[in-house]
Each structure stands twice: as C-alpha cells, then as structure tokens.
Amino acid sequence: MAEKRKLIQYANGPSLEEINGTVDVPKDKGFFKTLLAYSGPGALVAVGYMDPGNWSTSITGGQNFQYLLMSVILLSSLIAMLLQYMAAKLGIVSKMDLAQAIRARTSRSLGIVLWILTEFAIMATDIAEVIGGAIALYLLFNIPLVIAVFITVGDVLVLLLLTKIGFRKIEAIVVCLILVILFVFVYQVALSDPNWGAAFAGLVPTGKTFATHPTIGGQSPLQGALGIIGATVMPHNLYLHSAISQTRKVDHADEKSVAQNVRFSAWDSNIQLTAAFFVNALLLIMGVAVFKSGAVKDPSFFGLYQALSDTSTLSNGVLIAVAKSGILSTLFAVALLASGQNSTITGTLSGQVIMEGFVHMKMPLWLRRLVTRLLSVIPVLICVMLTSGKSSIDEHVALNDLMNNSQVFLAFALPFSMLPLLLMTDSVTEMGKKFKNAVWIKGFGWFSVLALTGLNLYGLPDQIKAFYGDGITAAQSTQADIIAWVLIVAVVALLVWTLVDMHKGNERLKTELASEHVSSTYEHLAKLSREAGSEAEFDKEAVAER
C-alpha cells in the first residue's frame, strides 16, 4: 500500500494504463454506429492543430499575402493526417505508444536525451497556452495580466475534475470546445463575405508560395509558410495519438478486430483534422476578409481583439455594425479561452505518455500539470514584469514574440518523433505484412519527414535572429547564424544516433522473434493473446516482452 501512495512511481505498463482498453466497440454493426464508438481520440489530437500558437501565424499570413498561403495550410493538414494515421496504427498494432516503442528499440541514454528534448517542446506549446489563456481572461474580465497568468495554473483543478468523469466524457467536452471555436470563426467569416473564388484558388501551391520576395510586414511568403507549418505539425500529438488510440478494446488474436481499430481510428482522425483545417483556413481568411488590408498593425491577441472592435479596421458595413456591439471581439476572446483549455487536457496527457514511455516514471496527472504549468509560467511572468513600465504595445509585442520564439524547440523535437514513427510503421518486423505501411504511404511519409525536417532546419537561422528583436545588428546576425549552424549540426548528429540505435534495435528484435518462431511483433502479440487466460494476463505478458 505504501508504494501506491508515492507521488512518483515506476511505470512500465500499458500506455495511459487507467484508460487503456476501457472503451467498448461494436462488432459487425453499421458504419456510422461503429464510427461513433471510435470517435473521440481524433478530437484530442486535432486540438493541437488549432491551439493559440496557430492563430497569429494564420491571420498574419492572410493580412500580408492574401490567400497565397492557403495551400500551406492544406499541405500541412494532409501531412498531419498521414503522420497521425501512422501514430494511431503503431499504438493499436504494437500495443505500445511512440515513446515506449522508441525506448524499447534504442539505448537508455538516447531515450533520456529524447525525453528531455520532447519535454522542452511540450513546455514551448504550454507557453502559448499560458499566454493565450491569460490574455483571454484579461480581455474578457479585465483581470491584470500577472494575476491572469497565475489563474491559468488553476486549470489543474479542471483537469483533476475531468479525470473523475471518464474518458468518453472528456472526449465529448473537447468536441464541444472545438465546435465553439469553429462556430466563432464561421460566424465572423460569414459576415465578412470573403472572395471564395480567390480562397479556393489559393489552395493550389505556386512558385510564389515559398518565395523569399516580397517582404511585407517584415515577412516573406517563405517565412509565413514556415510559421504556419511550425505551428501546425507538433511532436507531442504523435505521442498522444499512439497512446489514446489504445483506449478502444481490441482482440489481438483476431486480425479483423485489429484492422477495424486501425480503419476507424483513421476515419476519426481524418474527420477531426479536417475540422482543424477549416479552423486554420478560417483564421487566414479572417486576416484577408475581416480586416482591411494592412489594417492590423499589432498581430498579437491584444491587437486582434482591439481590431475586431475598431470599426476603422473592418472591411465592410455588416462587420462594422456588428462590431459596435462588441460581440466580434468578445467571441474571439471566448474562442481563445476555449482553445487554451482544450490544449490543457491534451498537453498533460502527452506529457504523461512521454514520461512513462521514455524514463518509466509516473505521477498523478494533476501533479504533472502543476509542475509543467509552473515552469511555463516563469518566462511569461518575466516577460510581463520586464515590460510593465513600458507602453501597452511594447508589452503586447513582447508577449507575442515570446510565444512565437518559444516554438523554436519544435524544430528540434519534430524529426525525432517523425523519423522513428516512419521507420517502425514501415517495418515488416514491427507491424507484420498486413499492417506495415503501403508503398504510397511509405513514399509520402518519407517526403513529409524530409520536407518538414528540411524546412524547419532551413528556417532555424531566422528563428534564432528573432530572439534579438527588430533592431538586430550585423554582428548579432552573424552570431545568430553561427548558433543556428551549431544547432543544425547537433540535430543531424542526434538524428544519425537515432537511426543507428533504431537499426540495432530492429536487428535485435528480429533475433528475438526468430527464437519465438514468429516473424513480427504483431504476430508475437497475437500469439500471446491466444495463449493468455485474460486481458490482464495478456497486458502483463506484453509488458514483460517489451
């Protein structure tokens, strides 16, 4: 009993053990009834694609380049669908989340390095949530920013309550919050009467989409595209999906049951990510159609809120009439608050997944949330206090810069989740012939991994320079380039280490499977499932074999 009372415990059981395999799913029922049973995990994943970090990049992209970057949002969403499909499939077929799978195939030292790297990435996204939540509270209730920042720590109480009501109810709450966000932007865009022909034309990429000229508002199309990509595809979503895809019950001894899980998890994910695509597209359309071209001088949440209540910045008479009531700006702040709360749930679950998977440590979700939120609050508080004596515009810009600059950690962490994911789902040894990636998925997967890694590393020098502010000197620019190249070399070296370790792990796995007279991890799990007397016994055996 004393062991159970420890706040930090050893963990090497099923991923998110409290909810793993807890949701019943129908067999041999109609498509829509079955899809409803599987719907939910995709919504938790989609939250990461419409969090506060996405808002500024999409709206600013619309303000600066009209509908040119619509194609970037579409491409990012399609890549996200592909990666999330592979993450869910890995969890369902191998009965391991991505963190557990990487740790099982690599050395302990590399596992610790990747854990620390991913923790920094999650904290970077948490900074955006703190800023978004605090600003929403300030805008809605006029709560001073310092106090609002501390109030965001209180969302740990919300999380504590949610853990008591069941995972299906958590999924339902997340879906409701997504619908709130979607309604707000559909309403505002509908009032703006955008040029839908130009918007649809923007979905087709051209040579101008990734051009380095012209520079508008200090941003080129390439920089705008990199900003949207960086804010869209995030590593923690891959870890999360590989874990929560296991909440549905599956019989590993029955290939049809596993295949059904994979199929409907993909449907759920793609439907929810399509909703995320529409939210991000609506944000960009807002930048074009809701505001007059170039009217938004302050792209921070403060500036967008004020612009939605300033009749001089809005594009048509209908918007101006509605804006006078204050409803446009209020709805914007409500959507911002909903987005922050959604991200609270998913960020905490992701953090637990990577901690248990990489270093086999487990703590209560409320404690995990409290620790990460307090760490994320520190840079936000420092930023607020340093700008407290300056003008409100300086304070707004500083917070916006902090949110954007914190995303630099995502450029480091993303390749180390994408590459192992692709290698393992491409592997016959890991997935079996039935569930390994099809040739076209493998091709698009490698294109996505190489393109996103290349673009992130290509944009790294500019991200480093952004830390120096607008008045960067030639000496500081050179210094930023040196720092960027050192980091790029470090990322490449770490990627090589990961590839070597993954190869060794795969060869070791082949030897172990051969001794069991099976050819893949999936076949081994099917054999264990048939031999196990109960689901609990199967879980125990699967963990022991990991």
TrEMBL record:
Keyword vocabulary terms for this entry: Membrane, Transmembrane, Transmembrane helix, Transport
GO terms (BP aspect): iron ion transmembrane transport
Compartment annotation: Membrane
Gene Ontology CC annotations of this record: plasma membrane
Cited InterPro entries: NRAMP_fam (IPR001046)
Coiled-coil region: none
Pfam families reported for this sequence: Nramp
Bilayer topology term: Multi-pass membrane protein
GO MF terms, alphabetically ordered: cadmium ion transmembrane transporter activity; manganese ion transmembrane transporter activity
Membrane-crossing residue ranges in chain numbering: 30-50, 65-88, 109-128, 134-160, 172-190, 271-291, 370-388, 408-425, 437-458, 482-500
Record-linked NCBIfam families: nramp, Nramp_1, PRK00701.1
Name this polypeptide is given: Manganese transporter NRAMP
